[in-house]
């Protein structure tokens, strides 16, 4: 990973923050480890876009606890999970073992993934749902993904829509959502110092500061095209797998959306790109 000293320190802080989050997440009802089906974390269109996985080599980047990752070997893929948090990787290995699935987990920063897997290449790179905001430079990330894929290999990215990240409740606490945060990049990372993570559970014991970078859809697509990818599928949906705001309501599939009287806006997107 080659960044200046300031960015490297931000990445270090993020890794420490995710180490601190891990025990809270493991014990949370949100993740429901051992009780939730791994496929609950996927939109239906993801499986359609991914296609047949049996016999394919797949790597899941920024996989955290691996609650999604274990769905891939169950679909027949030879699976590697990679995350920069040592605490998360330790738990991911345990979760996979207890679930009776075979996943190879590697601890490394995503920018060092090629070296961390000894130059192996894959048919599929999967990533998303809260991953891109921790990447300082999408062009460097796209180059790493390209190097991880076999010719003709596929990147599948399912990520929270940048519009979701830009929306926030009114300052008075009302249900109406306003544009409160940047959609587009350009003003550097946002520093967040929070004693609580996004799940239920106690306050973090330490390392409460994290840094996030905004990435619009245009930046994502441009980075991938610049790295030699062909984008052949982009799906936007109003559904997300957790209750982001108190007034969100359950959809028929168990995910969450805004109420019927709210505007229909995209909260999650799926993107498929092929290494050409």
Characterise this structure:
The protein has a single domain (5-251, 262-275), classed as 3-Layer(aba) Sandwich (Rossmann fold). It has 8 helices and 13 strands. It is α/β, with parallel strands linked by helices. The protein starts with a helix and ends with a strand. It has helices spanning 5-26, 44-50, 71-74, 86-99, 113-116, 138-148, 162-166, 217-226; strands at residues 57-61, 78-83, 103-107, 122-128, 149-160, 167-169, 177-179, 190-193, 209-212, 229-237, 249-250, 256-257, 268-275. The mean pLDDT is 95. The strands form 4 sheets. It has a 7-stranded mixed sheet with strand order 3-2-1-4-5-13-10, sandwiched between helices. A two-stranded antiparallel ribbon has the order 6-7. Strands 8-9 form a two-stranded antiparallel sheet. Strand 1 (57-61), helix 3 (71-74) and strand 2 (78-83) form a beta-alpha-beta unit.
Could you describe the largest sheet, including whether it forms a barrel?
A: 7 strands, mixed
Question: Could you report the average pLDDT, rounded to the nearest whole number?
Answer: 95
Number of helices: 8
Supply the CATH superfamily name.
Answer: Vaccinia Virus protein VP39
CATH class placement: Alpha Beta
**Share of helix among residues?**
25-40%
Shape: globular
Q: Helix- and strand-based class?
A: alpha/beta
Approximate strand percentage: 25-35%
Sketch the topology as an H/E string, one letter per element.
HHEHEHEHEHEHEEEEHEEEE
Strand arrangement in the largest pleated sheet: 3-2-1-4-5-13-10
Distance between the termini: 25 Å
């Amino acid at each position: 990973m080659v960044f200046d000293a300031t960015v490297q320190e931000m990445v270090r802080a993020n890794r420490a923050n995710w180490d601190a989050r891990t025990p809270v997440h493991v014990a949370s009802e949100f993740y429901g480890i051992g009780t939730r089906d791994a496929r609950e974390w996927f939109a239906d269109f993801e499986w359609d876009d991914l296609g047949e996985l049996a016999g394919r080599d797949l790597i899941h980047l920024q996989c955290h606890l691996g609650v999604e990752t274990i769905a891939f070997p169950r679909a027949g893929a030879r699976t590697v999970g990679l995350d920069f948090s040592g605490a998360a990787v330790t738990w991911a290995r345990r979760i996979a073992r207890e679930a009776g699935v075979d996943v190879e987990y590697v601890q490394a920063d995503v920018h060092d993934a090629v070296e961390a897997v000894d130059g192996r290449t894959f048919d599929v790179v999967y990533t998303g749902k809260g991953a891109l905001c921790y990447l300082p430079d999408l062009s460097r990330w796209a180059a790493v993904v390209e190097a991880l894929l076999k010719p003709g290999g596929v990147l599948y990215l399912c990520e929270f829509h940048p519009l979701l990240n830009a929306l926030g409740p009114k300052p008075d606490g009302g249900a109406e959502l306003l544009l409160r945060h940047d959609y587009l990049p350009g003003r550097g990372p946002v520093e967040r110092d929070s004693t609580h993570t996004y799940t239920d559970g106690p306050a973090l014991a330490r390392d409460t500061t994290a840094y996030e970078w905004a990435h619009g859809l245009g930046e994502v697509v441009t980075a991938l095209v610049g790295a030699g990818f062909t984008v052949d599928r982009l799906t936007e949906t109003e559904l997300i797998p957790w209750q982001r705001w108190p007034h969100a309501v359950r959809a028929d599939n168990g995910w969450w959306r805004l109420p019927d009287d709210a505007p229909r806006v995209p909260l999650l997107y799926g993107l498929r790109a092929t290494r050409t």
